[in-house]
């Protein structure tokens, strides 16, 4: 089974499905998003979308209210294509810690989502994920996916590793190969058994090769579509691996086992 481990709701959804079909992907993890760069038709429009992305990545999320429209878009996409998408649901991090467990129960578990994400803590504040991991552990170890590229810092990656050690039942996925800190990300994930590394938007192709060599059972192929391309994501993995068990794991086998799908 080929699974794209990282995708965001597209507008229209059919555009995303076409990309997945071209890549030969059977299914895709789908995250809600408040940003739609695929809608932009000129530089000014793209600038507005990217400004919204910058606000989200900077931790200016606006609480649960700002997430509701994104949750509705996710619900609609999954309802229209239930056999294709594996929904994850993000939760706001700028709410009181006591509210996090309620949100995970209602918005993640209540939707039947496969996990929590993609979470975007403010730079330097990965510690705010503590209540999320605690809530994930309370629900049998829900997987949690965290934004790994800029503005995530190397200190944030170390904080994530420390949190993962405190909550070993929770699979913690660092996305985008840890961004420019990919070497540190590979080492941290290698040393913490409950962590996984998603390989989208790699800065150099040998980062993908090294990550798979170091993490053959915990590297996940993803595109981060619409920012990346499912065809290119699969091609990168196939370029640096030989046909066989390791390639099959990275392209979907590991994630299928993690999520309990066949």
Automatic annotation (TrEMBL):
- InterPro entries with a match to the protein in the record: Amidohydro-rel (IPR006680), Metal_Hydrolase (IPR032466)
Annotated transmembrane regions: none
**Domain of life here?**
Bacteria
Q: Where is the Amidohydrolase-related domain?
A: 3-260
**What is the name listed in the Swiss-Prot or TrEMBL entry for this protein?**
Amidohydrolase family protein
């Amino acid at each position: 089974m080929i699974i794209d481990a990282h995708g965001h709701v597209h507008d229209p959804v059919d555009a995303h499905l076409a990309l997945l079909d071209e890549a030969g992907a059977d299914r895709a993890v789908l995250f809600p998003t408040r940003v739609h760069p695929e809608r932009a038709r000129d530089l000014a429009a793209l600038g507005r979308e990217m400004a919204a992305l910058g606000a989200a990545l900077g931790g200016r999320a606006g609480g649960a209210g700002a997430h509701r429209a994104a949750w509705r878009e996710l619900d609609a996409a999954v309802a229209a294509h239930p056999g294709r998408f594996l929904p994850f649901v993000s939760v706001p991090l700028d709410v009181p810690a006591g509210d996090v467990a309620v949100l995970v129960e209602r918005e993640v578990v209540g939707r039947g989502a496969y996990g929590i994400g993609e979470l975007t803590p403010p730079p330097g504040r990965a510690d705010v994920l503590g209540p999320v991991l605690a809530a994930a552990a309370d629900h049998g170890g829900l997987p949690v996916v965290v934004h790994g590229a800029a503005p995530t810092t190397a200190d944030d990656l170390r904080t994530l590793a420390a949190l993962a050690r405190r909550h070993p039942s929770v699979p913690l996925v660092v996305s985008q190969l840890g961004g420019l800190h990919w070497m540190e990300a590979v080492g941290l994930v290698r040393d913490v058994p409950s962590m996984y590394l998603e390989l989208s938007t790699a800065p150099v192709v040998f980062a993908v090769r090294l990550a798979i060599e170091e993490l053959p059972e915990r590297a996940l192929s993803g595109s981060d579509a619409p920012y990346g391309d499912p065809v290119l994501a699969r091609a990168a993995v196939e370029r640096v691996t030989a046909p066989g068990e390791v390639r099959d794991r990275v392209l979907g086998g590991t994630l299928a086992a993690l999520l309990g799908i066949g």
